[in-house]
């Protein structure tokens, strides 16, 4: 009994041997066992279920379809294929989202805890036991390294700790070495344990910088994938492609990145450069961030539309919640490691500065490289080249550089020239030099392996064999042989130090033959005419990897080298996109030998992250089309992000015949390319400006004179890019990031912060084509009616009607319309686009399906109507009919090519352009007047006659200028000027950088002039902060004076003010009244003829104005 057990009168007893015999212990034991069994019943089956779920069944919760990450990106997914790889299957309700997508239990989990390190964090991951990926062997254990390198920069690297994998070598790109973690970063880093994800946010706002929870990590030998959320839909960058707009379309677009020698066509093709870097403008507060994946392997980046999520943040002890639109970016890479760098800005310009600080700042171009340049593939012979040079000089159009394309060579072999067709070329080059002009030659990487024309050995090949400098086949012994312009060729391995020496030897020796001034390196993706090699490529994991990104052709070695070939830096599979970059490095080394003290100019087609340290870039083999001119602006803006500011497109277009109107407008735009070159193709008409009408010549001369006037400002912008990493050509959003109207402005651009360019980019008017010819025997018909409708951005923009009758004159009419009220049915390129003869039938191809116009044949008497229509549809898939010569091609496809086609142009030139003006003061550059009316924060329609481009100066800036001349050699000797544009506070500022224009290390040696300008309502101050070594003497490049000062927006009285000028600390001289003009109505002060007042650019000066 209990009473007995607890009785105090009985002595205590040892009852230990009885404890299980007592009824209460038996009860306790039974109860405990019951609990244990119950727990086992619950826990064990649950654990088993979890384990089995982890291994066999994907967890597929309901989610917004826009958050799905494709688990079957190679296409042709089926339920069986999808579920076999452990993924979720559910066909989407809308077009775009994948049917097969990753489950929530895919990826990796933390193995242990996240460790704090001196540089940041370290974590070990183990793969969840989901089915293996179908692409290659999965890596079971990963290591995550997080380095908090700077307040604004974070490094996150995911790698295989047990096996060394290819990484971009330091010789290609030197990145910062880890140091101590910073104490007060702008970012927070958090981790999720299972499945593993990492999230980076901005401390001040909570904005998402990087968040991998949306798509689960995949890491196998030849397939790496990770997805991240963006803070907003404002995404810019990634390249190289033709992006029709600067701000990305996020509607399920996939962009491959892998260097490819393909003409830019406005589709999704990967092009010459490899730039896995983007910038995201986070929200209306103007904050921006950048994300860079350091990886040179082939990859693709998929952009998904935003999903509205809730963002929470504590501000002033209050929980602040708001809904934000967060898109997704997915990377799929087929080699290397996942090596991310993030840049916190906070401004867009800060992001570019921080990115270029890491990858290397852009080279300072030679001053003459900012002049106008002229080129053509195949001038035919030396006489034609002389004619072009002379007729361009005769126009008075400024002209600094003439090019030699591959036609100057003997049989297109590097380091030779055709002594028959180009006899006297060295003399012509000397003539260019005598006139203050330069000569740039092209060099391709492919080296012919046959003898010279006269049977003598081709020394570059023979010496290359001896030095063993060529790319090796997979056996590591024999040289890969392909085919390019010279015929059979081998390919230098520019990653090898011996090759750099060999290349420099031949560049140096050839300069003794042709005294060139710069080098243009082309075809260096590398591009070949045979896939892989003359003998094909091996059937292995490199040439045929288990996953191929969405690259052009879907064949890794299409028009390039076999992927299993070997180079000094690694297998071509890994270093392919570094080929052009390594050639640029080798060519810069060669130039330093040819010109030990001068910069010269290098322009490259293929490029990689950091190529801007060595070379500029042009946008490749564009065509003479209005849309190509338009898209060149986006291309320039993107390469500003990529740290290659010396950028431009072929003015007037490379492919196809241009028109005078197009070329005239393009010369106006091209005058504001940092790299300004007119270049065209062998098969098409001359387009140097001298071949056109006097009106065109005058317009081109005027706009190029404007460029040369502004070259001191442009050169100063390049100095800032070189030392601080700022952009040269700049999108409006970089200067006005809080103005949402600027976020997608890409038909205008800025030079620096101060000059706004608003070009005309579209034509208007009607075109008539008269065809004369006999019976159309090609198709055996006597009557044909064709209607073509052009679709761009889902709006019908043009309609064409063609009536063809046997032996009769026919009329083709093109009418541009903003919208055509017809109800078109959707179609695709693979469908039969030809209706069955119904006159009223209409059918179109949705622009999302890549076709851009509709073919209707009615009545239809052509046997192979489908192929004809599809042939037409494979023309450029854009607003193709805005370029008039395409009509001729359409007609020539319909009629015999031999028929006589006459195009009659009845065009009304576009005489206006719409321009957006952010909320600040803006002045017309040419007149000094402020823009009329209520223009701030508005889009304004401006007059734009054919001979004019609209250029505006921003209030608050001071632009250095110089009297122009026909070459920079002579313009650099002319007096300087200043253009002062007042802001709302009657203040302005600016900078002038000036050196000898070509010394290779003038910035490092501080052998330059640097002047800071500041203006107020009463005075202008010129503060010299650096003077050249030894100071300027007579005839010195710095012995220049200011001759003009223009002040826009200066409110003074009705009378002409008194102006005084002189040294800051000395007596001021009164400027003669005859040299002072003041326009009270437009508030413009002009000072002219100041040169004899000895206002030197190397002296700190003061200019005052007023009435005392």
UniProtKB/TrEMBL annotation:
Catalyzed reactions: Hydrolysis of terminal, non-reducing (1->4)-linked alpha-D-glucose residues with release of alpha-D-glucose
Molecular function GO labels: alpha-glucosidase activity; carbohydrate binding
Gene Ontology process terms (BP): carbohydrate metabolic process
SMART domains cross-referenced by the UniProt entry: PD (SM00018)
Domain of life: Eukaryota
Regions crossing the membrane: 27-50
Keyword Transport carried by entry: no
Biological source species: Branchiostoma floridae
Main location: membrane
Name used for this protein in its record: alpha-glucosidase
């Amino acid at each position: 009994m209990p009473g007995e057990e607890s009785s105090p009168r009985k002595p205590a007893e040892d009852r230990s041997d009885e404890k299980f015999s007592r009824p209460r212990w038996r009860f306790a034991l039974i109860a405990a066992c019951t609990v244990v069994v119950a727990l086992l019943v619950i826990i064990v089956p649950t654990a088993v279920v979890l384990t089995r779920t982890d291994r066999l069944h994907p967890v597929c919760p309901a989610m917004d379809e826009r958050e799905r990450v494709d688990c079957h990106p190679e296409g042709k997914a089926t339920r069986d294929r999808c579920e076999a790889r452990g993924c979720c299957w559910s066909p989407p309700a809308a077009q775009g989202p994948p049917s097969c997508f990753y489950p929530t239990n895919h990826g990796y989990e933390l193995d242990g805890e996240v460790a704090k390190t001196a540089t940041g964090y370290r974590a070990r991951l183990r793969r969840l036991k989901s089915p293996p990926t179908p692409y290659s062997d999965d890596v079971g254990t990963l290591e995550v390294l997080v380095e908090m390198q700077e307040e604004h920069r974070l490094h996150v690297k995911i790698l295989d700790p047990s096996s060394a994998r290819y990484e971009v070598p330091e010789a290609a790109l030197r990145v910062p070495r880890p140091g101590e973690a910073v104490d007060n970063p702008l970012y927070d880093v958090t981790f999720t344990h299972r499945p593993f994800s990492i999230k980076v946010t901005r401390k001040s706002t909570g904005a998402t910088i990087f968040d991998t929870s949306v798509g689960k990590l995949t890491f196998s030998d030849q397939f790496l994938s990770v997805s991240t959320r963006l803070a907003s839909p404002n995404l810019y960058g990634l390249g190289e492609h033709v992006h029709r707009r600067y701000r990305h379309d996020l509607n399920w677009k996939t962009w491959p990145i892998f260097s490819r020698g393909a003409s830019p066509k406005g589709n999704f093709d990967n092009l010459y450069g490899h730039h896995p870097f983007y910038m995201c403008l986070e929200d209306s507060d103007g904050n921006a961030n950048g994300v860079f994946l350091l990886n040179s392997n082939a990859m693709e980046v998929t952009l998904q539309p935003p999903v509205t999520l809730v963002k929470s943040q504590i501000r002033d002890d209050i929980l602040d919640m708001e809904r934000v639109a967060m898109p997704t970016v997915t990377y799929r890479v087929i080699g290397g490691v996942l090596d991310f760098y993030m840049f916190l800005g906070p401004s867009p310009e800060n992001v570019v500065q921080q990115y270029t600080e890491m990858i290397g700042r852009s080279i300072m171009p030679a001053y003459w490289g900012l002049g106008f340049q002229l080129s053509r593939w195949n001038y035919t012979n030396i006489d034609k080249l002389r004619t072009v040079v002379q007729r361009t000089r005769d126009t008075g159009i400024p002209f600094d550089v003439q090019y030699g394309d591959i036609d100057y060579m003997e049989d297109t072999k590097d380091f030779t020239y055709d002594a028959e067709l180009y006899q006297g070329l060295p003399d012509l080059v000397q003539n260019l030099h005598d006139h203050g002009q330069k000569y740039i030659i092209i060099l391709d990487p492919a080296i012919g392996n046959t003898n010279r024309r006269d049977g003598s050995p081709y020394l570059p090949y023979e010496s290359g064999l001896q030095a063993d400098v060529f790319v090796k086949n997979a056996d590591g012994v024999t040289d890969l042989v392909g085919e390019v312009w010279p015929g059979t060729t081998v390919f230098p391995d520019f990653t090898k130090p011996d090759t750099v020496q060999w290349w420099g030897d031949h560049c140096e020796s050839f300069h003794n033959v042709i005294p060139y001034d710069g080098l243009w390196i082309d075809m260096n993706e590398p591009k070949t005419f045979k896939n892989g090699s003359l003998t094909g490529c091996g059937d292995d994991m490199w040439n045929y990897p288990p996953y191929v990104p969405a690259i052009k052709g879907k064949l890794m070695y299409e028009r390039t080298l076999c992927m299993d070939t070997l180079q000094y830096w690694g297998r071509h599979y890994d270093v392919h996109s570094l080929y052009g970059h390594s050639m640029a490095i080798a060519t810069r080394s060669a130039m330093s030998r040819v010109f030990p003290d001068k910069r010269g100019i290098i322009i490259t087609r293929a490029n990689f992250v950091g190529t801007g340290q060595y070379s500029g870039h042009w946008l490749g083999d564009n065509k003479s089309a209005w849309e190509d001119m338009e898209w060149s602006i986006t291309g320039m803006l993107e390469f500003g992000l990529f740290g290659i500011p010396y950028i431009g497109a072929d003015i007037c277009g490379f492919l196809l015949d241009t028109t005078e109107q197009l070329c005239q407008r393009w010369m106006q735009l091209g005058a504001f390319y940092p790299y300004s070159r007119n270049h065209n193709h062998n098969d098409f008409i001359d387009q140097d400006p001298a071949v056109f009408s006097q009106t065109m010549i005058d317009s081109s001369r005027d706009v190029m004179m404007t460029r040369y006037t502004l070259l001191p400002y442009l050169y100063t912008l390049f100095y800032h890019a070189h030392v601080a990493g700022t952009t040269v050509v700049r999108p409006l959003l970089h200067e006005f990031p809080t103005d949402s109207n600027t976020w997608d402005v890409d038909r205008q651009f800025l030079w620096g912060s101060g000059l706004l360019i608003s070009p005309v980019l579209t034509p208007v008017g009607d075109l008539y084509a008269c065809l004369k010819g006999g019976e159309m025997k090609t198709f055996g018909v006597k009557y044909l009616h064709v209607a073509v409708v052009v679709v761009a951005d889902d709006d019908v923009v043009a309609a064409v009607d063609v009536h063809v009758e046997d032996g009769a004159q026919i009329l083709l009419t093109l009418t541009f319309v903003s919208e055509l009220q017809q109800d078109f049915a959707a179609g695709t390129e693979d469908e039969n686009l030809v209706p069955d003869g119904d006159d009223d039938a209409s059918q179109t191809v949705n622009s999302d399906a890549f076709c851009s116009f509709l073919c209707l044949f009615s009545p239809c008497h052509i046997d192979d109507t489908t192929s004809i229509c599809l042939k037409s549809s494979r023309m450029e898939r854009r607003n193709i009919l805005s370029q008039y010569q395409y009509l001729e091609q359409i007609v020539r496809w319909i009629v015999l090519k031999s028929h006589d086609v006459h195009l009659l142009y009845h065009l009304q030139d576009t005489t206006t352009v719409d321009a957006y003006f952010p909320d600040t003061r803006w002045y017309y550059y040419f007149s000094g007047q402020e823009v009329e009316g209520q223009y701030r924060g508005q889009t304004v329609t401006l007059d734009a006659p054919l001979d004019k481009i609209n250029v505006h100066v921003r209030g608050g800036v001071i632009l250095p200028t110089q009297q122009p001349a026909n070459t920079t050699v002579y313009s650099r000797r002319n007096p300087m000027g200043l253009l002062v544009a007042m802001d709302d506070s009657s203040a302005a500022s600016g900078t002038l950088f000036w050196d000898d224009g070509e010394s290779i290390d003038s910035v490092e040696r501080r052998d330059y002039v640097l002047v800071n300008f500041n203006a107020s309502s009463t005075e202008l101050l010129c503060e010299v902060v650096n003077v050249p070594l030894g100071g300027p003497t007579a005839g010195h490049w710095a012995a220049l004076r200011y001759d003009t000062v223009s002040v826009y927006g200066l409110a003074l009285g009705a009378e002409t003010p008194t102006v005084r000028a002189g040294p800051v600390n000395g007596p001021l001289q009164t400027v003669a009244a005859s040299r002072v003009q003041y326009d009270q109505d437009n508030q413009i002060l002009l000072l002219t003829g100041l040169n004899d007042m000895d206002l030197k650019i190397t002296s700190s000066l003061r200019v005052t104005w007023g009435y005392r």
